Each structure stands twice: as C-alpha cells, then as structure tokens.
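Long-time lurker, first post. I've been practising inverse folding by hand and with some scripts of my own, and I keep getting stuck on stretches where the structure tokens seem ambiguous. Below is the full token string for one chain I'm working on. Before anyone asks, I'm not after the true native sequence, just a reasonable design that respects the backbone. If someone could post their per-position residues I'd love to compare against what I wrote down in my notebook.
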C-alpha cells in the first residue's frame, strides 16, 4: 500500500469522525441543519480526491466549523498538507484555528506547536522560534516537544550556546539526587548532543590557540558523554600541544578501550604523541598491543612499517602475512603487494587466496529500493517486500 493511499485513508477517517462528532455533539440549537455542514465535508473531500489542495483548504476554512469536536479534523488536514509539501495550506489552516479564541487553552497551544512545525518546514525559523518559546513558557503538556524543536533550530543555525541552554532544559536535575537515576534513551540522546555542542565550541577555540577555554569545553563534553570519541581525540591534541604526551596517550587509550572501531582515527595522534618520546622500541610495542586489541588494519600496517625500518623486510613480511591470513582486508592486501621484489611470488599467491576468500564473503545482489544485500537473487525482496527490485551489484566489488 502506497504512502499517499495511507495518508488519504487517514484523512478520510478523520473527516468522517469529525463530521459524526460534530453532528451528534453539536448544541441542539444548531442541529437544525446538518446538511450544510455535511456538504462542506464532502466538498472538501472531493477536492482532496481531485488533488486540488488549495480548494480543499479554502473549503475547510470557510465552511467547516471550528470547535472541540472538529479540531482533530482540522489538525489532520493541516498535517497532511505539510507532509505533502503544501506548507502554505497547512499554515493557513493552523492560523485559522488560532483566530478562534473559543478553543480551550491547551488546544490552542497544540495548534501553536503545529504552526511552528509548518514554519520549520517552510524555513521560517525565526517565526517558529517565537511560537515555540511561547509554548515552552506557558504549556506544560507540549513543553517537551517545543524544547526538542527549539534545540533542532539552534543546532541547524549553529547557535551552540542557545542549543546547549535548551538541551539542558530537557534533562532532569540529577545533580540534586544522591544517586543519579539511569538516563532514558531520549536523555542519552540529549547528553550526546550536548557533548558534541561543546566540541563544536572547542574547535574554533583550538584554532585560535585559546587552549584554556578549549580544555574547559572538552572537559564538559566528556562529562556529558564518556563515549564521545571526538571529545577524546580533541583533548589528546590539546595535551600534545601542551607537551603532555603521556596524558594524550591515556586519552587515546580510553578511545581504544571504549570504541576500538575508531582505532584508525587514533593512529595519527598516537604517532604524534610517541614522537615526543623518541623511543622506537616503545612505539612498536605500543602499536602491537593496540593492533592486537583493536584488530585495526591501520595499526597493523604501521607496525609492519616500523618493523621493516627497525628489523628488516623479512620480519615485516612475516607479520603482514600472518595478520592478513587472520583478517583479510583490502588495505592489508595493498600492504602485502608493496613488499620488496624478493617476496613478490609469495605475495601474489597470498593475495589470490585472500581475494578468493573476499569474493566468497561479499554480497552479490542489492535491492534498489531499500538497500538489502545478500549472496542470493530474490525476486521478492525479503526486507521491503518489493518485487523485481533486487539486481546484481556492479562496480569494483561486483559483476
């Protein structure tokens, strides 16, 4: 079932529900002529069916009464307009609702929130910000949603101080608790964002060599999210600039322990930190430990380069062969092919063996609709259940 058909069915249900509620719960003095209201519903529905969004909006605004019973229908139509890219129509519907002070206060704040979403979709962020500020100050029900939208606005505008201020409002005051509660998934997402906001503030400070202020921002970044790799890498750079290589290595070790997949990003700073010691043997020993722990191709290749310089090509070749057999990667194959001429015959045999292994493991087919990949051709995609969307992969890794 297509998305547009689902949206149409939803608005159809909303319109029908609104008409029934409006008819049965309308005050008796206005029940005398239900046919006029029914006519406006069906007229607006007919315009939607014929894809005349503007006419549908005008019909609803001019002919559909606004009250607590019909409000869901108005909101559903406005949301549908926005989702279809008819932002002007959505704005007109929601502005029409705000011009009716007879609605309860909590419902008016709901309309404020929807109108702010319209403005965000239209790129009118200053108008959306004013509406959202009102909702935050005056509505406990919709405060959380408004704060989330405000945070996203300041983030898109790179207003990091304002983004930080709003994001902090979304977190509970745990500092007053003797034992902090375990954060929810939503709170963790906010803390992660806060951590990156402080990194964003730290970067220009580092560029201008304001090390003290940058260090303060990075300390706060690590406090909000102890797994933020970016905060640790920047902090390690700061330590190196202060001639504190051991502190830098400790920070990098934290990255390797928490997020070993980022070992390739650690290596350049790791190399700079050890340059301050001038001890090649200690450097190689540290490289080997990280390479074994993180199984990082970047560290393995660096180990081989240091071995070749210190102990000769034979030692480096043996190490590369062993590493490539355990975990073949394209980068390791390239390193093997770079070995001296005397090792070329053995290198070619190893590369052929590993390429055959990679060829067996790589996916051969990919769905053009959802991206599902596998080694077997399915005419019906197991993921998105679309027919005829899976095709052989072409390119450097395909047919």
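-- Answer (accepted) --
I ran through it position by position. Result:
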């Amino acid at each position: 079932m297509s998305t547009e058909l689902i949206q149409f069915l939803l608005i159809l249900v909303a319109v029908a529900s609104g008409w029934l509620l409006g008819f049965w719960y309308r005050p008796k003095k206005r029940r005398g002529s239900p046919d006029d209201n029914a006519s406006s519903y069906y007229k607006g529905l007919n315009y939607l069916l014929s894809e005349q969004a503007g006419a549908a909006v005008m019909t609803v605004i001019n002919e559909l009464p606004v009250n607590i019973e019909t409000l869901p229908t108005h909101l559903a139509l406005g949301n549908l307009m926005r989702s279809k890219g008819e932002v002007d129509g959505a704005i007109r519907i929601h502005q029409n609702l705000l011009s009716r002070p007879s609605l309860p206060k909590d419902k008016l704040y709901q309309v404020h929130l929807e109108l702010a979403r319209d403005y965000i979709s239209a790129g009118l962020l200053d108008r959306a910000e004013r509406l959202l500020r009102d909702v935050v100050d005056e509505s406990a029900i919709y405060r959380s949603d408004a704060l989330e939208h405000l945070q996203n606005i300041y983030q898109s505008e790179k207003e990091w101080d304002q983004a930080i201020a709003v994001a902090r409002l979304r977190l509970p005051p745990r500092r007053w608790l003797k034992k902090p509660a375990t954060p929810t998934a939503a709170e963790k997402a906010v803390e992660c964002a806060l951590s990156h906001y402080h990194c964003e503030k730290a970067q220009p400070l580092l560029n201008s060599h304001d090390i003290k202020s940058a260090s303060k921002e990075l300390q706060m970044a690590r406090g909000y999210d102890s797994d933020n790799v970016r905060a640790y890498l920047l902090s390690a750079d700061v330590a190196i600039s202060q001639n504190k290589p051991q502190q830098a290595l400790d920070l990098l070790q934290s990255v390797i322990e928490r997020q070993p997949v980022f070992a390739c990003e650690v290596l350049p700073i790791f190399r700079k930190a050890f340059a301050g010691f001038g001890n090649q043997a200690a450097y190689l020993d540290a490289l080997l430990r990280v390479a074994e722990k993180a199984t990082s191709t970047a560290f393995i290749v660096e180990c081989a380069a240091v071995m070749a310089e210190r102990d000769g090509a034979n030692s480096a070749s043996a190490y590369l062969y062993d590493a490539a057999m355990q975990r073949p990667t394209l980068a390791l194959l390239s390193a093997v092919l770079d070995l001296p001429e005397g090792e070329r015959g053995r290198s070619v045999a190893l590369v052929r063996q590993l390429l055959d292994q990679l060829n067996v493991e790589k996916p051969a087919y990919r769905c053009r609709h959802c991206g599902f990949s596998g080694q077997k051709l399915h005419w019906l995609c197991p993921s998105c259940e679309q027919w005829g969307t899976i095709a052989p992969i072409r390119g450097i890794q395909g047919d």
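A couple of notes from the structure itself: The beta strands are 365-367, 373-374, 390-392. The chain has four domains: 3-169, 189-256, 279-361, 364-399. Happy to go over any region you disagree with.
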